Amino acid sequence: MLIFKAFILLIIFSVSSFLGLNLSKKYSSRVKELKEIKSALNMFEEKIKFTYETIPDVFFEISQNTSETISKIFEEASYNMKMMSAGLAWEKAIDESNTKLTKEDKETLKGLAKMLGKTDLDGQVSEIRLVQKFLDTKLQDAELEKNKNEKLYKTLGITCGLAIVIVLI
User: Fold this and answer.
1) Domain hosting residue 146, numbered range
2) Residues 95, 88: contact at Cβ < 8 Å?
3) Rounded distance, CA 30 to CA 40, Å?
4) How many domains is the chain built from?
5) CB atoms closer than 10 angstroms to residue 80
6) What does the pLDDT read at residue 106?
7) pTM: predicted TM-score of the whole model, two decimal places
8) Maximum Cα–Cα distance across the chain
9) Which residues contact 136 (CB under 8 A, 6 or more apart)?
10) pLDDT by 10-residue block (mean), the chain, 169 residues
């Protein structure tokens, strides 16, 4: 009976700690995804400035060179551009993405859709740079949020687990 009780308490502590760690990962994932998107947009800017590839081709190439989560956004946008305008395809890909980005982050990224494929090269480059500047601000906010909340959730998960175990003993 004592072994069974110890096993149950260990499971309760483990689940609580896991939940705390899992909640804390969303903050570091957001920072990582914002950096990836910023890097992908930089790649997009360079590609459209120095090559004559179409936007869907550039997006597909970017999807091959980024992490899985961000890759899906660019791949989906590239695929959707065959059936709709570049701006609508980008917005749809952002909306349907399964990322840790906040609603504000997604709205910032959707800002790129306004000029995507509608203006000349200089207009698109300036729009990309504008979105990158907004992403810089979002990245700073995400870093601060990560530093503040990541440790909090880890500690909270472990502490709650210990508190439940102590109460049940």
Assistant:
1) 2-168
2) no
3) 15
4) 1
5) 20
6) 86
7) 0.82
8) 75
9) 38
10) 86 91 88 90 87 84 86 88 86 87 86 76 81 89 89 90 86
